[in-house]
């Protein structure tokens, strides 16, 4: 008889010691990645920065900025090998929980219209598009719009 071991998944506060791994993922999965300064500034500013470890290996991360009644999901990424495994959903749920625990009433985010996987995830969680920011993101040729989404955090559970 063989036993199938489930990976141990932990979502933990991001520390400076995580940043090399975070940047490896960032540069692999993001067409216009954040640099080291973006992450160190976010941590220094007190933003809510988290990593997901899967059996010790970094599987993803997110950064949320809390501001009065609103929270803003600044970035969320999942390592290629862990995409389509539920890690993104776990991270997004945790980001929503962190925002709510921090007093936010809603979570805002921007997403590229070309990012079909992210759009599907956000819609699955009940995010609603409220605006379009024209020419928000750099793109291979020019700029790309950002779709602005929001979610009422009173609707989430722990």
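Sequence proposed for the structure above (158 residues):
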């Amino acid at each position: 008889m063989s036993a199938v071991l489930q990976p141990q998944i932990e979502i933990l506060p991001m520390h400076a010691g995580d940043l090399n791994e975070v940047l490896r993922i960032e540069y692999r999965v993001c067409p216009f990645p954040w640099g080291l300064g973006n992450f160190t500034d976010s941590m220094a500013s007190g933003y809510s920065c988290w990593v997901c470890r899967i059996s010790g290996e970094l599987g993803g991360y997110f950064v949320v900025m809390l501001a009065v009644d609103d929270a803003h999901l600044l970035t969320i990424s999942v390592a290629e090998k862990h995409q389509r495994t539920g890690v993104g959903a776990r991270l997004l749920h945790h980001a929503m929980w962190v925002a709510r625990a921090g007093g936010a009433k809603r979570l805002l985010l921007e997403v590229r219209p070309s990012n079909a996987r992210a759009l599907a995830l956000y819609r699955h969680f009940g995010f609603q598009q409220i605006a379009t920011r024209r020419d928000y993101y750099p793109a291979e040729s020019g700029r790309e719009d950002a779709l602005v989404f929001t979610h009422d955090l009173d609707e989430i559970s722990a």
